[in-house]
Amino acid sequence: MAGDGSAQWTELVKRAQRGDREACAGLYAEFARTVHAIVLGHVGAAVAEDVTQEVFCSVFASLARLREPAAFPAFVCTAARNAACSALRQKRRTPRHESPDELAAGGPSPVARAEQREAAERVHAVIATLPEAYRETLLLRLVAGLSGAEIAERTGLTHGSVRVNLTRGMALLRPLLQEAGLP
Amino acid sequence: MSERDDALFDPTLPPDPELAALERALLPLRWQPRPFDPALLPPPRSPRLRPWLALAALLLVGVAVAWWWLPAMAPLQPEGAPRQFTAVEQPLTIPLGDLAEITLRPGSTLRFEHWRPAEARFALLRGSLEVRVQPPPKVAPGFFVVDTPLGRVVDMGCRYTLELRDDGSARAVVTEGAVAFVRGERTVFVPVGAAVEVRADGVRTPLFGDASEELMKAVVEYDLALTAPDPSRRGQTVKQVLAAVRDARDSLVLWHLLRDPAAMFREPAEQALLDLVGAPLPNTKAQSFDPEEWLAFLRLRAWPSNGK
Questions:
Q1: pTM summary value
Q2: What is the tens place of the pLDDT at every residue in B227-266?
């Protein structure tokens, strides 16, 4: 979604502002992983999904007040940071339970999945110690799977800034992971 | 920047083993796409008007009312632009300086055409009105005119009512002075106490309110024959009118016969006038056939100014 993405978002935002439900669903599909990664930069994985949902609730409720549709990415990223900080203040630590669908899904056994998730949360805990700019950019890259260009497009950072955040963030992260015995 | 850093920025490049291991480790935290939940959307907005919107609507109504009423309330001025007046539920009084006053009755519409030194002209579009015009010399006869779809009412120093009826006819009743009603080639004179009816087929000869049934019927026949191509029929109706004339006030009909296009009908009409009210100028030739000469005499002697 690099390059022509902003034009498509702008159209989706305009339609969503007119109450088009499909456009809202499109924006949700496009930005959910971004919001989730930003939220992960502030709160634990256990509550990140709930906070992500809350972010979209508030974004859709206030979408009509967004004067410039092209500013939607910055708008939603800011909303994600604010919601995550708010959740952190409330010290919400509701543990996430796997749904019956997830438990019934194929792949690794529940025990193996629990171990994998525990390992992932340990890595996440180390990332969470990094400065905000580095950890957010790294989570967008490593968890959300966005390229540097996509991160720049959604956060409003320049390509150079994204590259610097990723490089310096990784440079800080490596010794911390080694120290913790993590990959 | 190293190749490792390039791969960090661009995931399409060959993966760095360290980076790949880190991505795998974080995979369980990756966002799991899920169907869009409509509960994320705000509830539909109620149709209640926002306060500012209501205020704007109120302001708009105010402007519309002002636009509608303020010009209507402003007095007419000489050389003023044409404008329209409508009385909706209450009578509307429209002064023309100190020269005249029009009272537009509810459900009526009047258009002001112009106010020039020699003429003030209106047009009654629907409904009815009452007009009071200052008598001469304050207002010259012919200055104040009201057009209707059926013809023009010309003031001659008077007070009168004018009504456009639903059946397409018009009626003017004079309560002071006199008016002339002009339609095409024909002009009738309506003195105080008399009324004129105008229909699609022409102007009726004015009659006083106490005219006999016989005279009224005879006049209608005459009026209808007036536009007929065959004058012989009109001759018959003239005879009927002459037979129905009895009172001095019936001379109003005879006076209109003096203006018949055919001399053969004017002559018996004038003779009937002489028999009824006497000669206007005793020392002159009796049959002058001059309607203006007769008019002054009849207004003074036969048609009392109080309309009785």
A1: 0.50
A2: 877 778 888 999 999 999 999 999 999 999 998 888 888 8
Q: Do A37 and B31 touch (CB under 8 A)?
A: yes
- Residue A162 maps to a domain: yes
Sheet holding B178-183, edge to edge: B83-87, B108-116, B119-126, B144-148, B151-155, B178-183, B186-191
Structural domain for A166, as ranges = 5-94+110-179
Is residue A104 assigned to a domain?
Answer: no
Q: Which residue has the higher pLDDT, A110 or B199?
A: B199
Residue of B nearest to A49 (CA): B31
Question: CATH says B75-204 is which class?
Answer: mainly beta
Instruction: Tell if the CB–CB gap between B41 and A21 is shorter than 8 Å.
Output: yes
Asked if residue A68 is part of any domain, the answer here is yes
What's the CA gap between B283 and B220, in Å, rounded? 35
ipTM reported for the complex, 2 dp:
0.84
Task: Please name which of A114, A92, A93 lies closest in space to residue A102, comparing C-alpha atoms.
Answer: A114
**Does A137 reach chain B within 8 Å, measured CB to CB?**
no
Residue B306 confidence (pLDDT) above 80: no
The answer to the question of residue A33 being in a domain is yes
Tokens of B64: 């519309």
CATH of the domain at A57: 1.10.1740.10
Residue of A nearest to B28 (CA): A117
The count of structural domains within chain A is: 1
Are B121 and B134 a contacting pair, CB within 8 Å?
A: no
Measure B2 CA to nearest chain A CA, in Å: 10
- Predicted pLDDT at B46: 60
